[in-house]
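User: Structure please.
Assistant: Input sequence and predicted structure:
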Amino acid sequence: MINKVVSGAEEAIKDISDGATLMLGGFGLCGIPENCINALVNKQVKNLTCISNNAGVDDFGIGLMLKQRQVKKMISSYVGENAEFERQLLSGELEVDLIPQGTLATRCLAAGYGMPAIFTPAGVGTEIAEGKEVRNFDGKDYLMEYAFDADYAIVKAWKGDTAGNLIFRSTSRNFNPIMAMAGKITIAEVEELVEAGELEPDYIHTPGIYVHRIFQGKDYEKRIEHRTVRKSEV
């Protein structure tokens, strides 16, 4: 069996170089690959194209890479929590593709399935459609969008085994599994790493065939953008 286990984030991302295109899993700040992002910040790799549901916040997640000007282009569907992102966008320092969330997910799926493109009604008749092919099916217009072409997919799972099989929890299951399928090289950091055969097969969300490197992460913060609790009735 191929040994997919690496010592940590630094070894996992060691060959990511300037100009790479990265998929980064997570939904908001839930299930983001914290260890790998920190390793990329420390490595100071530049001119990255990042495909992600979100752009992190100013001092966490992808926001740390934006702060160091490591990101050349951001392809995302939600960027509302990052003031530095907004500043770089408005000043022209950062290229940005804002994509409907369903289109973002389906372009990830297309890459994982080996499909070159998808057709979607989302974005037809808007600025998103400018310069793109529109085709009519049964009287309805659909916009053609290409599958993503990412050098690396970097994901975070709850549990994984040494063969690369992954289990995600709750909201972190939104983008992590589909991105894990889509990268040329997929790196997975997990909260708990076990031996092959210890995970219940019926509970595995991403088969190890998609994963090239895996390691057990550490010191997860698991931040919440806005913590909201019910007011006390006392």
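The first strand starts at residue 21 and ends at 24.
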